[in-house]
Amino acid sequence: MANNISVIIRCRNEERWIGHAIQSCADFFESPEIIIIDDNSTDNSRRVISTFDYLNIKVMSIEGDYTPGKALNMGVRQATNETILILSAHCVLTSVNYFDKINVLLSDHVAVWGKQIPIWNGKKVNRRYVWSNFKEEDQINYHSPQENRPFLHNALCFYRKNFLLKNEFDETLCGKEDRYWAIDAINDGNSIYYDSSLSANHHYTENGSTWKGVG
Question: Taking CA atoms, which of 64, 79, 91, 153 is between 20 and 30 Å from 146?
Answer without folding.
Answer: 91
